[in-house]
Amino acid sequence: DGELMFQQVPLVEIDGMKLVQTRAILSYIAGRYNLYGKDLKERALIDMYVEGITDLMQMILMFPFLPPEAKEKNLESIKEKATNRYFPVFEKALKQHGQDFLVGNKFSWADVQLTEAILAVEEKIPAVLSAFPQLQAFKTRMSNMPTIKKFLQPGSPRKPPPDEHYVQTVRKILKI
Predict the structure, then answer these.
(1) Is the torsion defined by CA of 137, 48, 148, 33 positive or negative?
(2) Does residue 171 contact residue 62 with C-beta atoms inside 8 Å?
């Protein structure tokens, strides 16, 4: 009926607007709730971190939909890229910055995204943070923030990993 600008989800109705496209939705929410830095420089850093995290998350999100014979190879690729390309960037940023958060000394959208990525990678590769003490401490800090801690509890609205029925339905629809 024209509600979906590009005829696909997600769609979020907020502040009298109908927003589509994940990046636009997240940027708006981050700005609205003061999670998008204090100036353009911080916003650019947040965007860079979020884009890198998004690249890593794409691999994680596609994993359940891979054919069984490709999963082991893909898991190795996720581990290699997480430990050699992505996590070292965040480890270095936290160490050099010397603060509790990635940008400034204020909780931002990038912190939320990084926490989500760490948890998602750990679901597949439990010891992935063993060489990253800054990220281990970061994950602990973020996971103990009251709202995040509540969200991570069993029975929360956190979306569980896709089950086999969901995977088969998506594979059928996408013909993969």
Answers:
(1) positive
(2) no
Among candidates 157, 145, 137, 155, which has minimal Cα distance to 112? 145
CATH of 37-152, one of 1.20.1050.10, 1.20.1250.20, 3.40.50.300, 1.10.10.10: 1.20.1050.10
Q: Is the peptide bond before 10 cis (omega within 30 degrees of 0)?
A: yes
pLDDT in tens, the chain (176 residues): 677 888 788 889 999 999 999 889 999 999 999 999 999 999 999 999 999 999 999 999 899 888 889 999 999 999 999 999 999 999 999 999 889 999 988 999 999 999 999 999 999 999 999 999 999 999 999 999 999 999 888 877 777 778 888 888 888 887 77
Q: What share of the chain is helix, strand, coil (3-state, %, to 5)?
A: 65, 5, 30
- Tokens 């070292």 correspond to 88
Q: Which residue has the tokens 């109908």?
A: 18
Query: pTM of this prediction?
Result: 0.87
